[in-house]
Design brief:
The chain is mainly α. The chain has helices spanning 15-35, 38-46. It contains 2 helices and no strands. One of its GO terms (molecular function) is acetyl-CoA carboxylase activity. This is Acyl-CoA carboxylase epsilon subunit. It comes from Kibdelosporangium aridum. Pfam families: ACC_epsilon.
Amino acid sequence: MTPADIVVLKGQPDDEELAALIAVVSAIKAKAARQASSADRESLWATGPGRPTYRPPGAWTPLRARRVA
């Protein structure tokens, strides 16, 4: 899926649009779950959100995303 494939819904979506969106997201999640191994799932949860680190005022620096090999 590319960013061009994503349609932003403005306003209140119709029931059909909402049902279609839910179906697409569910299909993507199901496909990802089928293709993921248990090691993939463990590494995903290991790198997921954790306890925030305290940073004193003025110590904020831009965070860079970690690259996954």
